[in-house]
Design a protein that fits this description.
This protein is α/β, with parallel strands linked by helices. It has eight helices and 15 strands.
C-alpha cells in the first residue's frame, strides 16, 4: 500500500487510504487491514467483504469530495454492542453478515502545482521555497492543463513573457505572476489586450510588498502572496476530487450502491441492476420469471 500510495502521489491522482482500526467477530477484516480507494470507486486492498466494501466505497468517495478524513462505523442490521466512537460516521448495512467494523478513511489530494517559468536566480529560489512548503513545482512547463495547475509565475526577466502569460490565461490558470517592475509589467500587459477578468488574474509586480531585494527575499514575497491567494482568497486548487463513479439502488435491500469495476450487477430484459453483493444479486435473479 505504501508503494502504491507513492505512485499515486507522483501521478497527482487523488485517493483515499482506508485502514481497519477495529473489527468484531465474525467480520472477515482484521485491525490493520488496508486498502486504497480511487475516484472511480476502485478498491485496491482489503477492508472487508463485498457488502462492507460497498459502504466503505460510498463513504470514501464522500471523503474525497470534501477533502476531510472520517472514521466509518459499519454495523449489521439490528442492535450491536460496539463501543461508541464520538464523531464517527455510522452506516447500518442490512446485508452485513455480522461483525461491526471501524475503518479510518484518510483522503490524499494533490498539493498545489506551481509552474515556474524562467532560468534566473529568482526562479530558482521560488522553485526551492515552493517545494519547501510541500507544493509541487514544474519548471518551464506549458500551462495547458488548468485542471492541475494552481499558478504560473514568470520569472524569466525577458524572453517570451507575453506569450507565456497568454498561454496560461487561455488555459484557465487562476493566478499568473510576472516578475517585473511596475512600468515594464504594465507595458507587457498593455500589449496583450486583456479583458478586465483576465487582468485581475495577472499579478505584477508579483509578491507581497515586504521590501524584498534579493532573489531569495523576492521568492518569499511571491510565495507569501500565493499562500494568501490559496488559503484566504480561495484560489482554485485541486482540493476536490472528480468523483467519476455512479450510484444506484439495490432493488433487494434498498442500499445505495456505488457502481465500480467490482460491483455486482445483473441485466434483466434490457435493464441493468446493481447490488451491494452477490447475495442480493442471487436473490433477485431467483425471483425473476
Amino acid at each position: 500500500m505504501a508503494e502504491r500510495a507513492q505512485e499515486l502521489r507522483r501521478a497527482r491522482m487523488p485517493f483515499v487510504r482506508a485502514t481497519v482500526v477495529r473489527a468484531q467477530h465474525p467480520a472477515s477484516a482484521h485491525p490493520g487491514d488496508e486498502a486504497i480507494l480511487l475516484a472511480d470507486g476502485t478498491i485496491e486492498g482489503f477492508v472487508g467483504g463485498q457488502c462492507a466494501q460497498n459502504s466503505v466505497r460510498k463513504a470514501a468517495l464522500g471523503a474525497l469530495q470534501v477533502g476531510e478524513s472520517v472514521l466509518l462505523r459499519v454495523l449489521p442490521d439490528g442492535e450491536v454492542h460496539f463501543p461508541e466512537a464520538p464523531g464517527a460516521c455510522v452506516v447500518v448495512n442490512p446485508c452485513l453478515s455480522g461483525g461491526a467494523l471501524e475503518i479510518f478513511l484518510e483522503p490524499e489530494m494533490p498539493p498545489p502545482l506551481i509552474r515556474v517559468c524562467g532560468s534566473t536566480p529568482i526562479a530558482d529560489a521560488l522553485a526551492a521555497v515552493c517545494a519547501g512548503v510541500g507544493y509541487d513545482v514544474q519548471r518551464d512547463a506549458g500551462a495547458d492543463d488548468p485542471a492541475s495547475t494552481t499558478a504560473v509565475v514568470v520569472a524569466s526577466l525577458g524572453g517570451p513573457e507575453a506569450e507565456t502569460i497568454r498561454a496560461a490565461l487561455d488555459a484557465g490558470v487562476g493566478y499568473v505572476g510576472l516578475v517585473a517592475s511596475r512600468v515594464r509589467g504594465a507595458a507587457i500587459l498593455d500589449g496583450l489586450d486583456l479583458s478586465d477578468a483576465e487582468r485581475k488574474r495577472v499579478h505584477t509586480p508579483v509578491g507581497l510588498p515586504i521590501g524584498a531585494r534579493t532573489p531569495a527575499e523576492i521568492a518569499v514575497s511571491v510565495l507569501a502572496e500565493l499562500i494568501a491567494e490559496i488559503r484566504v482568497r480561495g484560489l482554485t486548487v485541486p482540493e476536490r476530487a472528480p468523483v467519476t463513479a455512479e450510484e444506484a439502488t439495490d432493488p433487494v435491500c434498498g442500499m445505495t450502491v456505488v457502481v465500480g469495476p467490482a460491483t455486482a450487477g445483473l441485466s434483466v430484459a434490457g435493464r441493468q441492476y446493481w447490488f451491494c453483493g452477490n447475495g442480493c444479486r442471487s436473490s433477485f435473479a431467483a425471483a425473476q420469471p
